[in-house]
Predict the 3D structure of the following.
Amino acid sequence: MKRIYLDNCITTKPAPEAIEAMKEFTDEKFWFPGSFFSTSEEIASALKVFREKFAVTINSKQEEIHFTAGGTLANNIAIKGILMANSGKGTHIICSNVDYPDILTNTAFFEQNGFEVTYLECDSEGYVSPEKLKAAIRPDTVLFMTSIANHVVGTLQPVKEYSEVLKSVDHKIYYHADACQAYGKIPLDMNELGFDTMSVSAHKIHGPQGVGALYVRKGTPLAQTIHGVNRVDGLNPGGINIAGIAGFIKAMELVFNNFEENSAYLRKLTDYILAKVEKEIPYYSINGALGDRRAPHNMNISFDYIEGEAITMMLDLNGITVATGSACASQGLQANYVLMAMGKNHVQSHGSIKFTVSRYNTIEEIDFVIEKLKSVVETLRSRSPLYIKNK
């Protein structure tokens, strides 16, 4: 039985075209970029073209693009680079209590080393208002960070409004955005949104794992956070995964060649999931915002009286991969921090399932998933003392 994969939030299937594009640089042009030799000059030229192609998708300049070994590395270079370069101007950081772990672990590191952090609270949909950002700003605030699309419930943050708030302040506050769940799903224009830095991950858009990109607005000071031989990029010294970058750019082209159509298809699938659940399965609740305030690929739903871990395991036995709201494998059965911050209780958090789709999923697959999900939910509820008590 072909596996149905609905955990595209964590990673996506590499596009066959992306894998094919990598072969040119694994089988033949495996050289390092540089100058003087024709081989190295050819790779340097290819890198420049790749940067130019990526820059077009976010309306930036090619010299503002830095390829990295993934979104996490891009986040670390940006956050640590900004704070280390500007620590003399302030030691106050602002982020939210529902941001991606890359942001939260970096802020925790700096908090342990003398910085102060204000964690903005979200509402019941995982939305963090611009007014809360404005109220948190201090004279010593040096950096504000946000995840554009929430990785758990898909809620989109008001990033343009954040930019207007930051522009109204009488001193410079740097603005970093994690776009790993947003790039390729919603339009991102650097001139319009005002980010100083932004991270992107290739494997979220059907590119290879271990490749990403960092946008750095011209003039943004970043301290050196990684040290080594400066072969290609001063911010990220050492070797470079030229084949991975080639696959990343090909995956990017496939997305942006039909951007509106691709995004609309993702939303069609998640809307269909919700419609089928509404029709087939009682006692559920939707987590996060709906409509255009939600990333098109993410649908997070809690099923009352049962635990998500059991649902995911039983679906897995039926060849279906989904994610649960409580990351028991890594957090010791703790409820998901995003859902708890939104005001969900432990039962709702543990009962949540995150369906994240890609362009490779189909309506027929969703029909099969809901059929199996309905059976799984009915079976688990028949064994649940919580359900029997409330039935």
User: Anything to note?
Assistant: The first helix runs from residue 16 to 28. The chain has a mean pLDDT of 92. The domain at 259-390 is CATH 3.90.1150.10 (Aspartate Aminotransferase, domain 1). The first strand starts at residue 4 and ends at 5.
